[in-house]
Amino acid sequence: MIDEAAETDERTVVLREQPPRVTLTIAPRRRPDWSSYPDLDEGSNDDRLVVAAAEFGGGAELLSHDTGPRLSAKDAGLTAHAPPASWLLPEQLTDERRKLTQTERDLKAALDRRPAVRISFPDALDGVVVHVSPTLPPLDPIVRGRLVERVLEGNPPHRLRVDPMRSLVFGGSFGSIGEYQIESYNEGYAAYRVAVASYFETLHEPIARIAQLPRIAFEVENVGQVSIMQLVVGISSPAYGLLAGDRDIESAAGSAALPDPPERPLDRQEQMMQSVAMHSMPSAATRRSNPVEMQWHDRPSFGGAG
Predict the structure, then answer these.
(1) Residue 243, pLDDT score
(2) Which residues constitute the domain of residue 285?
(3) Positions of the region Disordered (predicted)?
(4) What is the pLDDT of residue 202?
(5) Which of 87, 108, 134 represents a domain boundary (last residue)?
(6) pLDDT score at 305
(7) CA-angle at 139, arms to 134 and 144, nearest 5°
(8) What is the pLDDT of residue 19?
(9) Are residues 175 and 33 in the same domain?
(10) What's residue 245's pLDDT?
(11) Is residue 252 part of a domain?
């Protein structure tokens, strides 16, 4: 580029047109008047560079990576700049640094041949999972009444009656339901009415207990280059803990599920048909293990029993 600039009339070559415009100009070869720069040393390479910029004129500014020329430029009244780090050439590696870099590469290659697992907690903020336990006040009596009415309308009682003619025609094997079954069902449905009303009356209590159980969500991610086989994630806690979906959760905090209405009693024929259907069903297949299922490894007893 210097040779190219020397061939032009203005001894200048444009390196970049887009702002900022960058040009390379060969300074004229003339002896500077050092008497105009009494604070600079003619024998200093740094000071000679500063004087060359000052003599160039045209509002020239000094660009130098070294501190010395920038300090001298300040004494001469020139503006000086240090080039950004992105302009610099990569630092030359020493033998020790090369060995260290190669060792890091070898270590990374060795680790890439093994699975790498990252466990994260998506609900955590600055490494802390905050559990908010909301409380529900008792429901207003008017609201409770409407809810009870809606549930009972969705589960109306069955209208049952004894059919004596059926027993006479088909005999005891296909007889209708009896008075005792009807009475038991009606008593069960009356208890169901009471249970539904009691459910909404005390609904705030089981919800408060369930809400007090903190739920900590976590994610397990394979961030390596190798598939993970037979991964086992161990979870430990200094306090008592439950796995999501564990049967003990309901016994620990109670259930917020609605009461179930009583089942309609079956007559002899319906009982026989149900029995035949159950015996004709194929046996359930052996339960296969879910590869991502959470299972107890060392299951503690609940409530201090056993």
Answers:
(1) 64
(2) 117-297
(3) 253-306
(4) 92
(5) 87
(6) 43
(7) 140
(8) 81
(9) no
(10) 58
(11) yes
Domain annotation covers residue 286: yes
Number of domains present in the structure of the chain = 2
Estimate to the nearest angstrom the gap between the alpha carbon of 180 and the chain centroid: 58
Are 48 and 129 contained in the same domain? no
Are 304 and 253 in contact, with CB atoms under 8 Å apart? no
Alpha carbon 137 to its chain centroid, in Å, reads 32
Long-range contacts from 171-175, C-beta under 8 angstroms, 24+ separation = 172/268, 173/268, 173/272, 174/267, 174/268, 174/269, 174/272, 175/267, 175/268
- Write the CB contacts of 270 (distance below 8 Å, at least 6 apart in sequence): none
